[in-house]
């Protein structure tokens, strides 16, 4: 595939926080291209730079050197973000939270609500629609975050440690929701994780260590599915 086919093209991108003796190089010259249909894991321990890399890919941070471009996207709104412990707005119920990105984007409320209810059904959270965030668990909140991204129908979903604070079974359901969201919308999916079991469910893995994106391996989707099945 040529660079022009890429949704996101990250070329030798570095990100440094601070200056002089206090400077922290969070990402050293990372190269990565994201294409439609990709199911990619960025695996590494805490502090290795995974979130920083994801922020570069999302356009939330400017690279200190190198470039990040979005040749296959019409705007950064084509990117859907799911963060660890994703914050839902406490005063809005689940369906309103799910519809929020669409409403902010100018979609009429009725249509946004309909799309949100459909997305909640896809991730198995339709029964939570009328609850407030304080009335649902952390795992359920992450599934709602996946539904919100599904309703948005982005071209790329970037998920930062979406299963980080969850037990294995709950994390697995959240990942199911994200994979379903990506499959339903045809979006590329990029997930950062420190959990090899999460990484095993994606088809391509990159390793992040001390800010360096080091290696990648690929397996076909069937193998990834088998590897990711709970034993
Ligand atoms: N805003 C910031 N200012 C200064 N240093 C930062 C900032 N954000 C991140 N860092 C530093 O950059 C490095 C990489 O952090 P980053 O959050 O990207 O790692 P991570 O792999 O996502 O970790 P975690 O899994 O704990 O979120 C760390 O040393 C961190 O302390």
TrEMBL record:
UniProt keyword annotations, A-Z: ATP-binding, Nucleotide-binding
Annotated ABC transporter domain ranges read 8-231
- Give the Gene Ontology MF terms in alphabetical order: ATP binding; ATP hydrolysis activity; transmembrane transporter activity
Q: Where is the composition biased (Basic and acidic residues)?
A: 222-231
PROSITE patterns membership: ABC_TRANSPORTER_2
Question: Domain of life, per the record?
Answer: Bacteria
Q: Where is this region: Disordered?
A: 205-231
Note the Pfam families from the entry: ABC_tran (PF00005)
User: What is this protein's name?
Assistant: ABC transporter ATP-binding protein
């Amino acid at each position: 595939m040529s660079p022009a086919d890429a949704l996101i093209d990250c070329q030798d991108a570095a990100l440094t926080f601070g200056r002089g003796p206090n400077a922290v190089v969070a990402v050293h010259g990372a190269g990565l291209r994201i294409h439609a249909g990709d199911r990619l894991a960025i695996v590494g321990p805490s502090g290795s730079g995974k979130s920083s890399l994801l922020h570069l890919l999302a356009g939330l941070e400017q690279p200190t050197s190198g470039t990040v471009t979005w040749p296959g996207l019409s705007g950064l709104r084509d990117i859907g973000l799911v963060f660890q412990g994703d914050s839902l707005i406490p005063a809005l119920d689940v369906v309103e939270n799910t519809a929020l990105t669409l409403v902010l984007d100018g979609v009429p409320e009725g249509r946004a609500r309909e799309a949100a209810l459909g997305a909640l059904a896809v991730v198995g959270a339709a029964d939570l629609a009328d609850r407030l965030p304080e009335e649902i668990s952390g795992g359920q909140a992450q599934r709602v975050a996946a539904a919100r991204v599904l309703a948005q129908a982005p071209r790329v979903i970037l998920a930062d440690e979406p299963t980080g604070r969850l037990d294995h079974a709950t994390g697995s359901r959240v990942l199911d929701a994200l994979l379903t969201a990506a499959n339903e919308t045809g979006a590329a999916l990029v997930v950062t994780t420190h959990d090899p079991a999460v990484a095993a469910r994606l088809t391509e893995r990159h390793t992040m260590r001390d800010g360096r994106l080091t290696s990648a391996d690929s397996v076909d989707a069937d193998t990834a599915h088998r590897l990711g099945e709970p034993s």
